[in-house]
Each structure stands twice: as C-alpha cells, then as structure tokens.
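Subject: two folds for Thursday's group meeting

Dear M.,

Sorry for the delay on this. The cluster queue was jammed most of the week, so I only got both jobs back this morning. I'm pasting them in the order they finished. Each block is the input sequence followed by the predicted structure tokens. Could you check whether the formatting survives your parser before we put anything on slides? The first protein is the one we discussed after the seminar.
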Amino acid sequence: MPSMLSEKHAALAIKILALLLAAALSFFVAATKLPESNFVKGSLESVEDSSNTVMKFSAATLATSLAISALPDDFATPLADSLADMNTYFVAILVVLFLEKILIQYGIKAAFTILVPLACLVGILFIATKRDILKSLAIRLCVLGLAVAFVVPCSTHITNIVASDLTAYVNDTIEETEDGSEKLNEAMDGSTEDKTIFEKLSDLFQTAVHGIADLMRHFQNTIRRCMNSIAILILTNCLMPLLTFFVLKWILGELFQIVIPMPPIRSTGRRRRPGPEAGPKPDSQLVSIGEKTP
C-alpha cells in the first residue's frame, strides 16, 4: 500500500514538474526566440508591405479624384466623388493591418509570457484539486495563447502563397490609376494651346478619346478595377486572418479535445402520488363493506 501511494505521488510530481518546465520554456525561450525567427519577421514584413500598398492606393485614388474634378464643366464630378469615397475602405483596411502588426509585435510575447504560463499554473491547480473546470480552463488558455500567437503569421504566409495573382492585380490597378492621374494633369497643362483637352487625352492614352463619353468609360473602368482591388485587399488582409483564427482554434481544440463540464440536471417536477399499484393501504384506513363509520 505505501508503495502504491509513493508511485502515485511520484506521477503527480512528474506532471507538476513537466508543467513548470513548460511554463519556464514558454516564458524564457519561446517569448524571446520566436519573435526573432524568420517566420515571424517575414509575416511582419508582409504586413508592412500591405500597409504601404494600401497607402499608395489611397494616394493614387485621391490624385485621380482631384485631377478629374479639375476637368472643365464638372461633367466627371460623380466619378471624382466615387474615387474619393474609396478612402473610407482604405482607412478600415489600415486599421486592421495596424491591429495585425500589434498582434505580431506584442501578441506573441503576451501569449508565451502570460497565457501559456497561466495555463500551466491552472493545470497544476487541477492536479492538486482534481476539479474538471480547472482542466477545461487550462486547456482553453493554452489554445487561446497559441491561436493569438500564430493566427496572423499563418494568415500572412497563406495569403502570400494563395493570393499572389490577386496581389499582382492590385499592383497593376494602382499603376493604372497613378498613370491616369498623371496623364490628366499633363493634358490640362496649358503648354500646348493648339489642341483641345480631348485631343491631348487621346494622344496621352494612345486611344480614341473624342468626347466626354469615351473619357467617362475609361474612368468608369478604372473605378471598377479599384473596387475589385479593394475587395481583394479586404479578403487578403481582413477575412483571411479571421478565417485562419477560427480554423486554427478549431484544430487546436480538436487536438486538445476540450470537454466542457455540464452542471447536473435537477428534477423540478412534483412528486408522483402513489397509485393503486403502490401497495395496499394500512388496515386502519380500510373500511369494510356494510360497516358504518361512527
């Protein structure tokens, strides 16, 4: 009997020491080494590149909007307003990218210095108290820490692999928008007064721009490409990290097999009255046939 108790205590001590070692490795090794790895640095560079792309795109649409609004007779003012309104989406995308940058810079350290060691501490309390709620809490803290640490780096690398063609489309749209604003500004330059603005635009765009309709069609196509590019930016920079978070959380949850303890169900119904099958009544309650009660 004493040997069995000693083996049980030794197993518990090994589990506690393993959790303490995991907490120490998380705090002193993972929290310092992982942010310096090429995997995380590459993810941070990808987020920086995306931020620069969005700001460049915003500047291109604003420049084109100003150039269009400067055309005579204000016939293209609605197009200029449409391009200017796109900056609302750019601001929202930049906010998401800024949050992703914060998660990369500080989320990994917070996960491995706070969440994972805290999960190990709760696991030790579970070993000491054998309360299932502490086990569930420890696993949830560990899953949350790993998800916070790896969601953005994984999403950026997945995006770079899957959406390379979409990124090229966005860059082509930015170049086309910038080129259009430069040609508009050059066409409105007064250095050559012998040509109309449409003749200048026809020469600059190397296409037939004979009137308002041709110019409107050109910039309507530019707006369509800009809207498609904005949708691509929202997909790659906003939806992909969110989707990666849920997928990674699901994978970790399946890996750790989280079981949520349910409280016992208490019966609130009324007690059933005894029926005839409950047995004979006591003799004191039986009244024979024909006997009168006093």
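Second protein, same layout:
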Amino acid sequence: MSVPHIIGWGHTQFGKLDQSDLEQLFRDAVKPALERAGSTAEEIDGIFVGTFNGGFVPQDFSASLAAVAMPEFRHTPAVRLENACATGSAAIWAALDTLQSGRIKRALVVGFEKMNTLPGAQIGDVLLKCSYVKEEAGQPGGFAGIFGDIARNYFERFGDQSDALAAIAAKNHRNGVDNPYAHMRRDVGFDFCRHASDKNPVVAGPLKRSDCSLVSDGAAALVLSLEPRSGHTAIRWRARAQINEFLPLSRRDPTQFVGAAMAWNQGLRDANLSLTDLHLVETHDCFTIAELLEYEAMGLAPQGQGARVILDGVTTKDGLLPVNPSGGLKSRGHPIGATGVSQHVMLAMQLAGEAGAMQIPNAALGAVFNMGGAAVANYLSILEAA
C-alpha cells in the first residue's frame, strides 16, 4: 500500500482574531499550504474540513465554506469531520483513508475554529458538550473542572504534583516564545506557574490558570499526496493509530489514560520503533495534568511517576525526548478544530528542518498525540523524514 506524504502546510497566527471570519482563516491557512505543495486548487481532489463549532458561530455546514473562501473549490468534493478536540486528526484520518483507497491522489485538510465569539461562561458550556453530558454537564469550571477533578484524584493517589505541573507549564511557555504562530509568546517562569496569584488564580481543583490551554481562534492546513514533492524532504507516515475509550469518567480510572497508552503501543509496534527512537513529540497538553498523564501513557514512566519525567528534564527542548517544542496547546493555543492539524504542521516543520528557533537538531522521527475529550478519542501519528 502506498504511504501518504505531507507535501504542503499552512498555519495562521493563533489568538483572539476578531478581524478574521471563517473564510479568511481558511484562505490564510490554505494558500501557503498549496504554495509549498507546488499545487493549485484545481489539483486538489478532496477537501476534509475539521471544525467542532458546537455553538461558537451560527454558521454550520462548514465544508461548504471552502468554495465561499476560494471559488476555485466550487466543484471540489468537501466534507466536515468532528471528534471533539481530536477533530483535526479525524479530518486527517479521513483524508488518509480516502487517499489509500485510491479514490483521490491529492487531499487538502483544513482545521479551523473561532472560539472567541462568546462570553467566557458560554465558551465553557460549549466545551462541556465534549464530556458525558448526562453525568458531567454543569461541572463547575467547565472542562477545567473535569481535568481539575482528574488532577485531584491523581494527587490523592500519588501525592501532590504541583511542582511537576508548574514545570510543564513553564517549559511549554518557554518553548512558545520561539513559535511565531503561538497565541502567547511569553516565558512566565516556574515561580509564576507554581504559585497562585491575582494574575494566576486557582481555576479548578489544584489547577491554576497557568495549567490551562488558551481559548484561541485560528486555522491550519495540510496538503497530502501519495507521492512526495520533488526536491523537498519527504515527510510520510510511518504508522498511525486510533483507540477510543469510555466517554463517562465514572466508567474508568480517571488517573490513567488507558486508550492513549494503547494507541502509543499500537503505533510504535506498527512502526517497528521504540520510544527512544523518536526525536520529539507534539502532545495534547490541554491541561498540564494531561501532559503528565500522557508521559505515563507513552511509556516514559510507570503510573504515578510521571512527575520525574519533567523534573529530571527528560522532555525539555534539550532533553532526551523533547515534548511540545512548539509550546504545545498551553502556549500555541487550542482552537479546537485546528489543533490536530496544527500539531502535524509543527512536526512536519521539524522533520523538514524548517522550524526556525523551535528546531530540534537532526529531527528525523517524531510523533503527534491528539485526543478528544478526556482521552476518549486517542490519535497517534508517527512521521518520518525520508
């Protein structure tokens, strides 16, 4: 079976983009992706749009906006995918499956979201639709409340991990300074992240504002093909996996991301790799406790011992396995539908040696972990430069 390649990518600034509507976000991500791919809109055989929406904007039927944004796509088949915070990866998976079926030769994947359209409390209500509403709707603090409960349970079982969470936040903010697309490019330091203050209040459970990803607008795009682009570094999938988990937290151990661990095990096995073979990882740090649990899921530490990974410097930019050299969701931002696509763009830039100040030297193998909900829909991509 032919292996799909990433031949082009584009990425908007993430942030509070009041002046950009959905069509503008689409154009701003897609045009540089097509340019890098050496492709025209007419050469795209299918468009795969990832957006959660859930009430952020009144416009739905989002795939149809492709032709409104760029009339060249008037007759190009387009479809919208949604899978909570893993929406971007769901769109990528659909494109990959269609490519490998032989139905199309070149695909465009676009993830976008406009989140800063509602007051904060309403944004929280929209995001809670990604929880099990029958049991978890009305959670104080919204999704931060859900992950605050996860952190509280973890602390009760394995001890106070506040130092580790602060170290993760400080690492990702420091990395984000070097990312020109990041929503927040400020190194706030460990002490700020460690201690509650007027500027860093407690949000839910043991989580402070510095433990939570940002409410962001933005878009990212990929052009995928079964053939690499001549004259450019070939970036291709070595393996990919998707594993789902129970939606209700009441039906599983919230301190262990079992589905995520299964995705990592399957992906590494299919790629015939060990974790130590990877040069970097872009992982889904919607909250710092999520990154901590993902260390354990990927196999960097046994359950309950994830803190030592960050405190020993394993995942810093100059560590044994850099995690989120882009700044992650914590610094780069988390526009829901764009996130999974953005993570793949960040890794592609690294493997092509085009990540600028974010660059990990000699990066040739890396992974993206993107999850929907509280580790419910778990997607893993292992990419290589060849």
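Two things I noticed about the second structure. The CA atoms of residues 36 and 110 lie 15 Å apart. The longest strand covers residues 235-244.

Cheers,
T.
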